[in-house]
Structures are given as structure tokens and as C-alpha cells.
Amino acid sequence: MIRQLLPVSALLFGSALLLFAGGIHGLILPLRGAQEGFGATSLGLLGTGWAVGYVAGCYFVPRIVGSVGHIRAFGVMCAFAAVSILLQALLVSAEFWIPVRAVSGFCFAGAAMIVESWLSDRASPQTRGTIFGIYTMVNLAAMTAGQMVIALGSVAGFMFFAVGAIVYILALVPTALSTTHTPAPLTSVNLNLSLLWRNSPVAVVAVFLVGISNASFGTLAAVYAGGVGLPLTTIALFASIPILAGAASQVPIGYLSDRMDRRKVLVGASALALVADLGFIILAPQDRMTNLILVAAFGAAIFAMYPIIVAHANDHAPEGTSIQVSGGLLMVFGLGSIAGPLAAGLMMSVAGSQGLFMTTITAHVVVILYTLWRILQRAAVPENEKGAFQMSAPARGITPETAALAGGEEEAEELEEAMDAEDAAEKAEVQARSSSTDPTE
């Protein structure tokens, strides 16, 4: 185990610092914004801006890395992430924060992709699963720690913005000092909706709706908790416990989904989320314990839904397309993440704190109804034809590189073949251009 981790320990440490700073950044903004009197719609638009930047980063960063290399690109991402949080501390304005939040989303996606590309390149087929599992756990712990550190001080001052910026900058040190060779180019992803739809309509519809639900909660959970009068320490727990509950629930849910129709497991997880939604809406709890119990159940459900959807889609994916399918679903999830916080913010501006869960309940009801209808239209994949369920971090922290890192030997070979084909096509294009400009012709 130690021999497997030593070559990638610096990358894991850099990723942990990145997620720690991201945890601070993601929680301090809605808390400080609410304190400054930002409306619920503006606070929701912070999540929309972040999602726009994140999706753009997944699309454009591979091209940037191809031009300047991994180390330089990673340094730029960390530097601009640090600049963005400092700018938000200097100029407290919703109109300014929203586009700057998009910049931080772009940088976060790019930095995560570069780390995952590096880890994937250093991992052998035999160690890939172990490294991915440890990488996921390290990131979950770091993100949770970043959120919980908010409870140690006041959100009114400059301190947490400065701490976030410092840690963003420190995150670039491990890769800057790395002596390893430059890894392979990053995985490019294109959104091919017709391919995804032919492969699995349930996956497309459900992943979009889960994007709406999860991003709404991820952006506005702290605003809800503050709105019902919870103290700062409990607000930090309210944001962190669902992530840990979601990580824990993936073990039994993954076990079930490998042994029965994954769509039925998706319906079950959505039903659990629905019960939690109803609890928040009907009970309107004000006390600490009820809110934390409900949010633990909510997180256990919503953060297990994305990997179920991806596993189901890959069960139907033609051979050699699993990474492209996973990347495409991530982009659809990103589109839902753009719409969700805005919709939830608008609902909260009308209905108050419970408007957050009125938004999520709508998404979960539609997931249940559409999935049940599709179960009647299409037979389940036989158990012996299924792939393995892969645990994942919350989907807002997933990039197209995650699928390559999470994959086993077959997926690694698939990615390598795709890269070789892309390189061959580029070389052929260069040769064609040189031939067309040959003066001897």
C-alpha cells in the first residue's frame, strides 16, 4: 500500500489543499452574502455562475494544457482561484461576485482535471482502483474540513477569504516541485445528446434533474440553515454531514445496484430524498437535531444518485464508449447545475427557506415518475452483463478525467487507444497541410 501511494502522495496532498480551499470558498460566500443582505436569487446565481465556469473548464482546459503543459496550467488555475476569493473579499457585491464565482468554477475544474490526469498517468491498472478510492476519501475529508473550519470564526471579516487564498496558492506547490514526467493529454469531452439519449433516456433525464437538486442544495444549504436560525457551527455541520452520509450510503446502494435493476435502486434513493424533502417542508424544523437528521438522510440519497445513473448508462454503453458516455453525462449534470441554483433562489425569494426543498422535491418526483415509466418500456440489463458500480465524490467535484482514473484496466486501455487515435489524426492533418504547401508540387 505504501509503495503504491508514495509516487502520488504529493499529488494527493495538492488535491487535498485544493478541496480544503474549495470547501471554505463554497461556504463563506453564501454565508457572507446572506449577512450582507443579498437576495435569495442573487445567492442562487452564485451557484449558477460556478456551474457555468465549471462546465466551461471541463471543455476548454484540455486545450489550455495541450498548449502550455500541466504544471503551468495548474499554477494558473490555483493563482486565479486565489485571486477570485481575494477579489470577493475586497468588493462585496452580488453583481461582482457572480461572474468572479464563474472564474473560480473554471479554475477548480481545470485544477481537478490536471491532478486526476497526473494520478491516472502514474497509476498502473493494478493500483488504479486503490488510488482512486484513496483520492476520493482524501477529497471528501478535505472538503468537509474546509467547510467545518468556518465554525472557528466569524464570516464577517477578511480572515476566511485570506485563508482560502493562502491554501489555494499552497496547492500548487506539490505539483510545481514534482519531478515526474509530463502525463498524457487531458481527456476531451463533447456533449452528444443524441448518443446519450439512444444509450439511456433515463440517464439523461435523471442526471439533469439530479444536477438541479444537488447544485441547489450545495449552493443554498447554508442559506436555508441560517434562515431557520441555526448557529454557525450547526450550519457548517448542515453543509458537511450530507457529503459524508452520501459517501457512506454508496456502499450498500452500490451493492444493491450491482444485483438488481439499477433503475429500481435509483427510484429507491429518490424516494428517500423525497421523504427528507417532505420532512423539511411539512415539519419546517427549527431545532438542531431534527435538521441534522433530515439532512443526513437527504445527503445519503442525493449523493448516491449520480453514480447509480452513470453505472446504469455504462451498462448500456457500446464497447469502447464508456468514458465518452460518462463525460457526456457530466456535461448534462452541469447544465442541471446551472439551472438548479437559479430556480431554487427564485423559489426561496417567494416561499422563504422551504423554497429550497420545494425545488428539490420537484426534481425528485419527476425522477421517480420518469424512471418508473421507463422500467415499463425497457427490460433491465442482465446481471452478468453489468459493469461494476463506482463510488464517487459529490458530482460537482467530478471531471471528465475522473472516469479515466476510476476505470480499471479495460478503461485505461480504452482511453490510451482513444489518445493514440487522436494523435494519429493530428499527425495526418499536419502532414496533409505540409503536403498542400509543398513548393515542389
UniProtKB/TrEMBL annotation:
Q: Which domain of life is it from?
A: Bacteria
Q: Which GO terms describe its molecular function?
A: transmembrane transporter activity
Keyword match Hydrolase: no
Which portions of the sequence form the region Disordered?
399-441
Q: Report biased composition (Acidic residues) as residue ranges.
A: 408-423
Instruction: List the biased-composition ranges (Polar residues).
Output: 432-441
Q: Which UniProt keywords apply?
A: Membrane, Transmembrane, Transmembrane helix
What do the Gene Ontology cellular component annotations say?
A: plasma membrane
Domain Major facilitator superfamily (MFS) profile, first and last residues per copy: 199-441
Task: Give me the segments passing through the membrane.
Answer: 42-61, 73-92, 98-119, 131-152, 158-180, 201-224, 230-253, 265-286, 292-313, 325-350, 356-376
Protein name, entry field: Predicted arabinose efflux permease, MFS family
